[in-house]
Amino acid sequence: MNNNIIKVEKVDDQKQIETAFSIRKKVFVEEQNVSSERESMDDEEAVHYLATVNGFPAGAARYRKMEKGAKIERIAVLNIFRGQRIGEAILLKILDDLKNEDKIYLYAQVIATPFYIKNGFRQTDNYFLDAGIEHVEMDFIK
Prior knowledge:
By secondary structure, this protein is α+β, with helices and mostly antiparallel strands.
């Protein structure tokens, strides 16, 4: 039985935000070869999240309020914590925080679409390459 305590919180403390950034850097920049500039673009206008497992930093994400709705971005889970539903915990926390938004969407890496479909998103026909990785736009169905 897994007794891990997963905690996801919106962070505004600079130290916690930097921890979230370091997780994203490890996943997107180091593992997926996304440029640092591309990965951190628009951070100053985003709301940031940090996930911990038993107090250890494990995952991060952000969202931004865009013209067409709330856009969830940069969901990242450190390799050693994958497969423990941390990404799902992050996504569900953000969705709960955004429950009053008219439109919630994201640009998913195509490889991750089953995860988002399982959690209430629907693919659009908008496919594109971003940082050399195939993505698809997905909308949350309320």
